[in-house]
TrEMBL record, chain A:
A GO molecular function held by the record: ATP binding
Keyword tags: ATP-binding, Cell inner membrane, Cell membrane, Membrane, Nucleotide-binding, Translocase, Transport
Domain ABC transporter: 1-227
InterPro entries linked: AAA+_ATPase, ABC_SmlMolc_Importer, ABC_transporter-like_ATP-bd, ABC_transporter-like_CS, P-loop_NTPase
Protein known as: ATP-binding cassette domain-containing protein
One protein family per Pfam: ABC_tran
Organism of this sequence: Marinomonas colpomeniae
Taxonomic superkingdom: Bacteria
Length: 234, 503
């Protein structure tokens, strides 16, 4: 269980997130600028907030990003352009790139799982957007951290590829029993990946419900405003 | 150079080649330049890494000091070095350590004092090109400092190293005032000093042009070899704002950083402090009240300000031309060449440029009254390599990242400059500051062309030392260095904006 009770202020933006997240996939929905990515950056340790952050009764707040049991996939800059695909995945297992046989096997397994076996010697510049994000997911598999944060990593991909990636994330989450948080602008993505949804408005968690809530007609009272905003913005 | 060559006799050149003295000078020039640039860069690498990763009290000041120390007037720095490392210097008085300051050791100490900070600044420019996303990933993946250095930093700084090495090598190879003051005799003489002797004492234009040509040839050969084996410097665009992410610390990292900072503390800071030593003497106030000092200050400003403006304008001309060639079908090879052309000025000794220009103007019938503009022009041209180093990376980056946006929106000329200004003002300030300080501290050109009405601060200082008024000279050095610090700060503040001073 991931227990979040975090406050963060920046300029005129004041956030106060309070929610207990159970394992499985949870999609973070909300309009732009409401504080979805801020929450992910706070969890990842890239922003300093106040309050409490516990995972399985262990406090994470005082830990540096690399000490937290978390892997984060960002919208961009997930790969090192100077390293090959294999090296980009392997640094997840050992930052110094000196791997044991077992770790090497794990890297190969992850590359196989993400269908990148024939791309191991390539550099990120030679990959398509989808392939590059698959490399990042392969690294997540190798790192094997219990929490996975996804900050719109598939937003630049075409719908078919995005769907493929979401299935991959879902599969990985179930197989490794992860607690996965996915930031998205699209309620359809939440429906596709299943699990639960969190609605964030003005830096606060206003709803934490099963994903089926999105299919209700008329719209769930807590989500009606968001859907109103979504339909206006479409 | 062409003007000088007109006065040369090819037949005499064979005679010069057979002189063993010439080859000794060439060998020593090469040896001391290689050692100086190698040591400067070896120290600069851990120092730059430490400055990037650690935030400590006095870091901003140290960076400002680094910017200034490479352009500290040579004569002032030599005074500081003598106070610290001389026979009765601080080192000898405090620890009883005697360093043979006159000879190779002295030359190396002075060159490292000037060029290690320059190497750090150049490497930091290389660090600036590392996308923040890489640091964020490194922080997430728990990279130690050595891993981050191996996998991220080295990849970027190895591209900045050849340029830095060539620049420092050329500066040391053509070192003039340092070798003249600390060389300790003909055993430790460089080509530049030999050119000076040929021009000043013998007025032998033939020999001077031969030696100058030889210097240009060696520097060109060296630059060609280094650039041929150097990797291409490419920029990776990242939209993530520049932030510092925490990396895993260790005892090893702390020890390396401490050793690097200790090197800085011993090599750079004491000579600086020594320069300010005369502030407490009684002569200082008397020197401040002297009208000759303030006349020299005004002359210095009259030379340095227009020279810096001209140099930055020249730098922009180079930059705009290089940018124009980028991404154009048959011109893509040109930007690098244009930048190298700017650096080539370092190969030609300042004295040769000045003498050549003087001869050229004399041929046109313009006499000595034009010497003010010769000094301004030569100073501007001599500062060009530094200006280009500061300007080019950010001009290139703007072009690479936003070229298509500018093209699609039709943003050109003045509108483009006004948009870019916020992003390039920091490097412009740095370029202007470098040019200003280099001109302010120039001793070579002004020594050749200085006259009754044209006595700048360094020349005034030189005249005082020449007439054994050492104490007054040291006080003038304080005034000169204070001017350097204040003008560099003001240039950063006024042109670069408040944030540039903080960085």
């Amino acid at each position: 269980m991931l227990k979040i009770k975090l406050q963060y202020s920046w300029d005129s933006f004041h956030a106060d997130y309070r929610v207990n997240i159970s394992p499985g996939v949870t999609t973070l929905l909300g309009a732009s600028g409401e504080g979805k990515s801020t929450l992910l950056h706070l969890l990842g340790g890239f922003l300093n907030g106040h309050g409490e952050l516990d995972f399985n009764s262990e406090s994470l707040l005082g830990l540096a990003p690399y000490e937290r049991p978390i892997s984060t996939l960002f919208q961009s800059d997930n790969l090192f352009p100077q390293l090959t695909v294999w090296q980009n995945v392997a640094i997840g297992a050992s930052p110094s790139l000196s791997l044991s046989t077992e770790q090497k096997d794990k890297v190969d397994w992850a590359l196989e799982k993400t269908q990148l076996v024939d791309k191991t010697g390539r550099f990120p510049q030679a990959l398509s957007g989808g392939q590059a994000q698959r490399v990042a997911i392969a690294r997540v598999l190798v790192r094997n951290k219990p929490i996975l944060l996804l900050d719109e990593p598939f937003s630049a991909l075409d719908p078919a590829l995005r769907e493929e990636m979401l299935h991959l994330v879902k599969e990985v989450t179930e197989e490794l029993s992860l607690t996965t948080l996915l930031v998205s602008h699209l309620p359809q993505e939440a429906s596709l990946i299943g699990g639960k949804v969190i609605l964030i408005e003005k830096g606060k968690v206003v709803a934490y419900e099963p994903v089926t809530v999105l299919n209700q007609t008329p719209a769930h009272p807590l989500f009606s405003h968001y859907f109103g905003v979504s339909s206006h913005s479409l | 150079m062409a003007a000088l060559l007109r006065y040369s006799e090819l037949s005499d050149w064979f005679g010069y080649v057979s002189q063993p003295y010439l080859w000794r000078v060439v060998r020593f020039s090469l040896w001391q330049a290689l050692l100086s640039s190698g040591i400067s860069i070896l120290i600069a690498i851990p120092v730059a890494s430490c400055l990037v990763h650690r935030r400590f009290y006095g870091r901003a000041f140290l960076l400002q000091l680094f910017s200034v120390s490479m352009v500290v007037p040579t004569i002032v720095a030599i005074l500081g070095l003598v106070v610290v490392y001389g026979r009765t210097g601080w080192l000898s008085q405090l620890f009883g350590i005697q360093i043979p300051l006159y000879g190779l050791t002295g030359i190396l100490l002075a060159h490292v004092f000037f060029n290690m900070p320059l190497a750090v600044r150049l490497l930091l420019q290389g660090y600036d090109l590392i996308p923040s996303g890489q640091w964020r990933q490194a922080s997430q993946l728990g990279f130690s400092r050595i891993t981050a250095f191996r996998l991220i930093e080295w990849h970027y700084i190895k591209k900045a190293l050849p340029g830095a090495f060539v620049l420092i090598f050329m500066l040391c190879f053509s070192s003039f005032a340092v070798v003249l003051s600390l060389g300790g005799g003909p055993k430790s003489s460089t080509l530049e000093v030999a050119i000076y002797q040929a021009l000043r004492f013998d007025f032998d234009l033939n020999k001077a042009s031969f030696l100058a040509l030889m210097q240009v040839a060696i520097c060109t050969l060296f630059a060609v070899i280094v650039y041929r084996i150097a990797p291409v410097n490419r920029q990776d665009a990242s939209l993530l704002s520049i932030e510092l992410y925490v990396l895993k610390d260790s005892l090893w990292a702390k020890t390396t950083d401490s050793v690097a900072m200790l090197c800085v503390f011993f090599l750079v800071i004491p000579p600086f402090l020594a320069i300010f030593d005369p502030v407490f003497s009684t002569v200082f106030l008397q020197t401040l009240l002297s009208s000759s000092l303030w006349r020299a200050v005004i002359v210095s400003l009259q030379i340095a300000l227009p020279a810096a403006a001209v140099s930055v304008m020249l730098g922009f001309c180079f930059g705009v031309l290089a940018r124009f060639c980028m991404g154009r079908k048959y011109l893509t090879f040109l930007p690098n060449k244009i930048e190298h052309l700017g650096n080539m000025i370092l190969m030609v000794p300042g004295l040769v440029i000045a003498t050549g220009l003087f001869l050229l103007l004399r041929d046109f019938g313009w006499g000595l009254q034009s010497s003010y503009w010769i000094v301004v022009w030569v100073n501007a041209v001599m500062a060009l390599p530094f200006v280009l180093r500061a300007l080019m990376p950010s001009l290139y980056q703007q072009e690479r990242r936003f070229r298509n946006v500018y093209l699609s929106l039709g943003i050109r000329n003045w509108s483009r400059w006004s948009l870019e200004w916020a992003l390039i003002r920091k490097p412009v300030a740095q370029a202007f500051g470098y040019a200003l300080l280099l001109s302010l501290g120039d001793m070579g050109v002004i020594a050749l062309f200085g006259s009754q009405g044209l006595v700048s601060l360094p020349l005034y200082l030189f005249q005082l030392i020449g007439s054994y008024r050492l104490e007054e000279g040291a006080c003038v050095a304080v005034v000169l260095i204070t001017f350097c610090l204040v003008l560099f700060y003001m240039s950063s503040r006024l042109i670069g904006g408040a944030s540039s001073v903080k960085n």
